[in-house]
Amino acid sequence: MSDEYSFHFCLKRPGWPLTNEVGFCPGKKSFCPKCNSIKISIFFKPGFLGIENGKWCRYMDENNFKLCDDYNIIKKSNYNPNWICKDCHNCGVILK
Question: How many folded domains does the chain comprise?
Answer without folding.
Answer: 1
